[in-house]
Amino acid sequence: MGARRALVVDDSRSARLVLKRQLIKHGIAVDEAASAEEALEYLLHDKPHAIFMDHMMPGMDGFEAVRIIKANPATALIPIMMYTSKEGGELYLGQARALGAVGVLPKEVQSVDLVAKLRSLHLLEPTPDNTPLPAPDAQPFSPAKEIAALAREAADDHMVELLQTHLEAQSRRLHTSIQSAMTSLLEELREPEAPAPPRRWPAVMGGMILGAALVLGGHKLLLIDDADAEAASPPITDETSTAPAPSQLLLAALAQQRSRGAQEQASLLKAVEWSLNREGLFAPGATPFDDQRLNAINELVQMLHQGGFQGSIHLTAHAGSFCMIEDEQGNLVLAPDALPVAACASFGSEAARLQRSGQLKSAAFASFASRDPLIEGSPIRLVIDEPQGNTPRTDYPIIDSYLLAGDWNAVARQNQRVEVRLRP
């Protein structure tokens, strides 16, 4: 078994630390979240092999977090163990399991009990004869050592807080100094009749990105070295001058900025695509390019046009590989969740359905896509591409005798999606 990773969710830093140290002794990597909301944010980008969830936390409690995680197909297969000091016996265990948790781990757990829980989460390999193994580096629990370790880490946190105050003050002073220097330099170089620079669509679509770029760009302008200035500007004719003139420094900085324009534009397009593709799922049997998606694409075209974008919007409908069976009439339908995947009759019916063009678009969407131009005065085009191969966004689980159709189809739903690509 490769390296396993667990997420520990608890508002108590000391409780997270105690469990983290025990898991690390078993070779398990640990990530931490101080609240249920922070855990849900983590799960947007990372998928641990198991989650240890505290029950009572400020804001969203552990039970509500478990319900949300299990309702999301992208995270529903991650096993969750409630990690809590709450007393409740069989009643509490029943509540936890009803929401999807595999069990309850008390915070005062013994080493042997912890090993059994880790095996139930598939974080440890089972022994051949199913006998428990002692924890590696097994040593008697020492409250004094644990308290001393917590005290050291608390002292470190206090030092970080003290330093952070000074660092933030220094950052504000530096920011003010940069702004003042940039203002002075631009006032000296400003020409009253110079035409305003043309509007570029990234400035309209990425206001926040542009604001950050102005601050960082100004800092780089003040720190530009002589070698870059000489390479990007004409030679100085005044033989008595030993340093580049301010106007030459500005021209050199602008030349560098232009060379970075294409890369920055590509990065912004990737960010826009990422945002659009988070909402691209469609159900088995549904039309991928329906009237609802038409409304979203129409709004996208309007925004891109207002931002000055010139290019094409490429749409691709990807099919999920659903576990299907035949009903009494011989039609393929989704298999019941409890059916073993090995008993599925077909996995490719959605791909075959989407290859038929009549299954792709509603009448309104087809009419919109055939317009030329899409909107008056805009060069933006809409292109519907055939999928090249069938690379899933979420990997399917390995098929064995224990895998059920419900678990397989939860992954297939994540892979059945419309993908958006912007090409300038």
General description of the model:
The chain is α/β, with parallel strands linked by helices and 424 residues long. It contains 14 helices and 10 strands. It has a 5-stranded parallel beta sheet with strand order 2-1-3-4-5, with helices on both faces. The chain has a 3-stranded mixed beta sheet with strand order 9-6-10. It has a two-stranded antiparallel sheet with strand order 7-8. Helix 1 (13-25) links the parallel strand 1 (4-9) and strand 2. Helix 6 (143-189) crosses helix 8. The longest helix is centred in the middle third of the chain and has 47 residues, at 143-189. The chain starts with a strand and ends with a strand. The model is unreliable at 129-144 and 207-241 (pLDDT under 50).
In short:
By secondary structure, this protein is α/β, with parallel strands linked by helices. 47% of the residues lie in helices and 12% in strands. The protein has 14 helices and ten strands.
